[in-house]
Each structure stands twice: as structure tokens, then as C-alpha cells.
Amino acid sequence: MEDILEAFLEYLRRTRSGSEHTRDAYHRDILKFINYLQDNNISDFDQVDKFVVNDYLSYLRSSTSTKKQISKATLSRNVSALRSFFYYLNQNLDYHNNPFKDIKTSSVKRHLPDFLMVDEIVNLLEVFDLDTVKGLRDRIAVELMYASGLRVSEVVSLEVNNIDLNERTIRITGKGSKERMVVFYPSLVLFIKEYLEERPDKTNPILLENEKGKQMTTRNIQYMLDKAALKAGITMKVHPHMLRHSFATHLLDNGADLRVVQELLGHSNLSTTQIYTHVSVDRIKKVYEESFPED
């Protein structure tokens, strides 16, 4: 069972350069679950049903699993990690059940209501059918919000002539008519090129057009996200700003300078950008503890 866990962690490394902290947390949470299964003579993940899950959650809530009672945030993180792990088993190893899919964590206070984990972003991106114009268009819309940190209003109004595919940059006119330059990664170049070649109206100055050849609306984007999140197995409400939030958070969690993130987001004041530093607190603590170990 541990070898499947290692394959899952390698999958996370390969599909997206997420933070080491995220992978370490997933490793600990899922390994604890595997140890629990083995202690209870369960040797295959297909044997895990809702009764096993409920017993495990009760075990986590008790003081038996740790020296102190588990916090609500930690319990929520465990459920999220295991839900993602079983989704991986469903998609890649032909397992047929995800007993964590319907586990509700609404009673658990989320400290980051607008934040998606790296693997949740990966799952979201993978649902789009890239063999269709619509699938390409929707994938591009999501990646522009996540990979470039664009506001949904900036995505729907983005014009083709503001995109430089050679330099991988986009010129954006944001709030208060303030201009900024953002970047995007190489794989998105291929998607945009293919989409521009395949879309019905190749002369439309607006990049993303609906089925009638008109500019997409923010409501179109939200409806698309609702369907994509459901297909990806994400139980929380995914809204466009959540992707922009995730963009900033993942950058900071991987060591990006706060002022660089400020520029990419188009914030006038650094204090506005600082709301995204919450996730990086864990990273700061880790660096501090490694620098000043206890005697």
C-alpha cells in the first residue's frame, strides 16, 4: 500500500511543482491512514467503505491517535488529502470507490475558504476535453486565472493582440485603468495557438468567445467552473477569485517575493497583497525551526 502512496506523491511532483510542505503533509496524513488500515487487517483500498471511514475519523478525533486532541483544521486537511488520494486511485489505478467523496467538512472551519490545494488545481485542469474547441477555451480560461492571476473580468475582456505568444506575456489593463504585464507557462502557448486555429470566428478580437461568437460573460465562467469542479470531485464552491487567490498563495508558498506577486496581481498597495501570505506562515515556521532547532 505504501508503494501506491509513493506513486501518488510522484504524480503530484510530476504534474505540478507544488510546495514540498504540501506533499509532506499529504504523505503524513495518508501514511497514518494506511497504518490504521493495516492495524485493522485491511490490505486493499477497495475494502475501505463508509464504515471504515467513520471509524477512522472517530479514531482521529480521539486522543488515541495523537498525544493531544486533533484540531478541526487538521481533521479537515486529513479528509481533503484522503479524498484526493482516492480520486487518484479512481482515475489512474482502476479503483472503483471514493469513500471520502461525500464526507462533509462544512462543520470544520476553513481558514482559507478561497484556496485550492495544488492537486485540486491539477484535478480541475484535467477535466477539460482538449480535443474540442469548447474544452480548449475553458481550459485556457481557468489557466489564465490560475497561472497568470487574472481577474475574471480581465479574462473575458482579454483581446488577442494583447497576448505575446513568443514572449509568453499578456498586457492587462486592470482596475483604475492601470496597466501591468503578466506571464504564463509554455504549455499554455500551445493551447492558445490551437484554440485560435480551431475557433469558429478567427477574426474576433476577443480571445474567449461563447457558442454564438460573442464575448463570454463572468456568469459563463462561473457556470463552467461549477460543472468542472463537480467533475473533478471538488465539493466546495469554486469561484473565479479562488483561482487568482490560489495563484498568489502558491507563488508565495514556493518562495516568491511579495512585491513580485503584488506586481503580477496589479495591487496598488502591498498591504492588499499581504492577505495571501497566510499559507506561507507554515513555510516560515519550517525555515525558522530548521534554523533554530531546540536543544
Structural features, described:
This protein is mostly helical and 295 residues long. The protein has two domains: 2-106, Tyrosine recombinase, N-terminal domain (DNA polymerase, domain 1), CATH 1.10.150.130; 121-282, hpI Integrase, Chain A (Orthogonal Bundle). It is built from 13 helices and three strands, in the order H-H-H-H-H-H-H-E-E-E-H-H-H-H-H-H. The protein has helices spanning 2-15, 20-39, 50-61, 72-92, 118-125, 133-147, 152-156, 186-198, 218-231, 240-253, 258-265, 270-273, 280-291; strands spanning 163-164, 169-173, 179-183. It has a three-stranded antiparallel sheet. The longest helix has 21 residues, at 72-92. It is globular.
List keywords for this structure.
about 300 residues, mainly alpha, DNA polymerase, domain 1, hpI Integrase, Chain A, 2 domains, three-stranded antiparallel sheet, 3 strands
β-sheet strand percentage? under 5%
Low-confidence runs of at least 5 consecutive residues: 106-113
Task: State the helicity in percent bands.
Answer: 40-55%
The profile of the biggest β sheet is: 3 strands, antiparallel
> What oligomeric assembly is this protein in?
single chain
Q: Considering the protein shown, what is the CATH homologous superfamily of the largest domain?
A: Intergrase catalytic core
Which geometry do the CA atoms define?
globular
Number of strands: 3
Second-tier CATH architecture of the largest domain: Orthogonal Bundle
Write down the overall mean pLDDT.
81
CATH class of the largest domain: Mainly Alpha
Radius of gyration, whole Å? 21 Å
Number of continuous helical runs: 13
Q: Which topology of the largest domain does CATH recognise?
A: hpI Integrase, Chain A
What is the number of independent domains? 2
